[in-house]
Design a protein that fits this description.
Layout lengths: L1 E8 L11 E6 L2 E7 L10 E4 L4 E4 L1 E6 L9 H6 L2 E6 L4 H13 L6 E4 L3 E3 L11 E3 L5 H10 L5 E3 L5 H13 L4 E3 L7 H6 L3 E3 L22 H6 L13 H13 L2 E3 L2 H10 L12 H6 L5 H19 L3 H23 L19 H13 L3 H7 L2 H6 L17 E4 L13 E6 L2 E3 L1 H6 L4
Parallel strand pairs: 1-4, 1-5, 6-7, 7-8, 9-10, 11-12, 12-13, 13-14
Antiparallel strand pairs: 1-2, 2-3, 5-15, 15-16, 16-17
This protein binds zinc ion.
Length: about 450
């Protein structure tokens, strides 16, 4: 048994415990939580002194891809306090193999949930064909059943899936107890909510509001980079407080559809022109401090991708930069407005997309969610309880309570006072096993 003693509890529900608590761990589960008087340390338990420390649930990254061995760094996730990841697009045999390795204890890492391949009913766009599966709309139910039978934790619908197909996929997935995640394009805006989609990924849901002339019929003809640039061509002109935006929020909220905006993905563009987007910028001390601690190939890739981005941004005119900043401000305002309107926001990163680091970029995502207007508490809930609920796993992880998995972080500073304190991780407990971030990282450096 382990007793984490005397910490201030931020348990993931959205509440902060007024008096210090003891958390008792038995095996891989939380056995009890309560004030010291009510929750004495069991005889023989290993004691972790958490006095003056802050406890949160292990974090969940709701949007990752663990598809290639050279970009799969389970230890980095753990070192950053990410104890659960949701893979939203990868081939089943790969992700299932990664999960088996973690579950066997052969390699430390986060719990992996996955959807298997992203389902496409039209041509997948070439950059991502390797982790898509193209299907015939007539076989929608059979495709969902095959994935459900293979043990997926959700279904991922991708850009070419049309509204009626999305509706059929959602109906079948829900009948099989599975949530549906969608990167929207052919199904635009509130159509996804009406189809029953549980979470819309990135900020493509706002694509519905693109002005005439900016609609994009065939994403398959573009490269991933060009496709990523589409939103930036018109988002600067959007009024994030308009009635059209309000109606879109209402449609999502009425259907209970969550938004997983992956802000860190968008921050790369303003970051590349030197704007203050925190450690997404290579100049930021937090990130430069992290660099030498990362495995050499990861650090090298990061530096190269950033140099690439910066070179691409070098020629941008002042006018173009101004438009980019407006678009970025609008993205933040749209996300904050959704939360304020009563929407469900989830924290995800799209790791290992360009310059996104396993685990550590989720800290950045939380900081950006706070910039967007969430409170630090709401940002923490977006990375703990909300993801668990969305996945139907609220009895398994996402909060610190008796019976839940023993996934928790011991922080040396208060994340509610400053969300950046979520980086000040002293210890990570993942299913009852205790890790120190420094030791995990030291084991990787070469
Ligand atoms: Zn993705």
């Amino acid at each position: 048994m382990i007793a984490v003693v005397g910490g201030t509890l931020i348990d993931g529900t959205g509440r902060r415990q007024a008096e210090p608590v003891n958390v008792v761990i038995d095996g891989d589960r939380v056995a009890g939580v309560g004030p010291a008087a009510a929750m004495p340390v069991p005889p023989g338990a290993t004691v972790i002194d958490a006095r003056g420390r802050f406890l949160t649930p292990g974090l969940v990254d709701m949007h990752v891809h663990v598809y290639t061995p050279d970009k799969w760094h389970p230890e980095l996730f753990l070192a950053a306090g990410v104890t659960t990841v949701l893979d939203l697009g990868g081939q089943l045999h790969d992700v299932a193999a990664y999960r088996r390795v973690i579950e066997s204890g052969a390699r430390p890492g986060p719990r992996i949930l996955f959807t298997g391949p992203m389902l496409e009913e039209g041509d997948p766009y070439p950059g991502f064909a390797g982790f898509c599966r193209r299907f015939d709309a007539e076989r929608t139910e059979a495709e969902v059943d095959a994935l459900a039978d293979a043990g997926v934790d959700g279904i991922k619908l991708y850009v070419t899936v049309r509204p009626e197909t999305a509706r059929r996929a959602c109906a079948r997935a829900h009948a099989r107890g599975l949530p549906v995640f969608m990167h929207q394009h052919a199904t635009s805006g509130v159509e996804a909510a009406l189809a029953g989609v549980d979470s819309v990924e990135h900020v493509n849901v706002f694509g519905q509001l693109a002005p005439a002339g900016f609609h994009l019929a065939e994403p398959a003809k573009l490269s991933p980079f060009e496709y990523g640039g589409w939103l930036w061509r018109w988002l600067d002109a959007l009024d994030p407080r308009s009635d059209a935006v309000r109606r879109l929020y209402d449609g999502l909220i009425k259907a209970g559809t969550a938004l997983d905006p992956t802000l860190v993905l968008y921050a790369a563009r303003p970051g590349a022109i030197g704007d203050d987007v925190g450690d997404t910028s290579m100049d930021d001390p937090e990130r430069t401090r992290l660099l030498p601690r990362l495995p050499a190939p990861v650090a090298k890739d990061l530096v190269e991708r950033w140099a690439e981005r910066r070179r691409a941004a070098l020629d941008a005119s002042e006018r173009a930069k101004h438009r980019m900043r407006r678009a970025w401000d609008n993205i933040l305002t749209l996300v904050g407005g959704f939360q304020r309107a009563g929407g469900i926001v989830l924290a995800g990163t799209d790791c290992p997309n360009v310059a996104i680091v396993s685990g550590f970029s989720l800290h950045r995502e939380l900081e950006l969610l706070v910039r967007a207007g969430l409170s630090p508490m709401e940002a923490i809930v977006a990375a703990t309880r909300r993801p668990a609920e969305r996945l139907g796993k609220q009895d398994v992880f996402g909060t610190i309570a008796p019976g839940r998995a023993a996934d928790l972080l011991v922080l040396t500073a208060d994340p509610l006072a400053d969300i950046r304190n979520i980086r000040r991780i002293e210890r990570v407990m993942a299913r009852g096993v205790v890790f120190e971030p420094g030791t995990l990282l030291a084991g990787l450096s070469r």
